[in-house]
Amino acid sequence: xxxxxxxxxxxxLNPNLxxxxxxxxxxxxxxxxxxxxTTGAHVSADFYNPGENRTSPEVMKIGxxxxxxxxxxxxxF
Length: 77
Known about the structure:
Elements: E1 4-8, E2 10-13, E3 30-32, E4 44-48, H1 57-71
Antiparallel strand pairs: 1-4, 2-3
């Protein structure tokens, strides 16, 4: 299932990526940054239904699964 993801707060980005790009597992996106009101390096991610500015329960579930895998140091895909 495709989902749209908005990622923010990177220090350095992969210069080959452009908005709307489809990212395959293992693609280097960037390094964590310290932008915004923060006390440490981090990246934030928001998950949306494809082409929409809303999040369905199904997409929220995918987002939670990704968050939990990252918190455990596991690969996302």
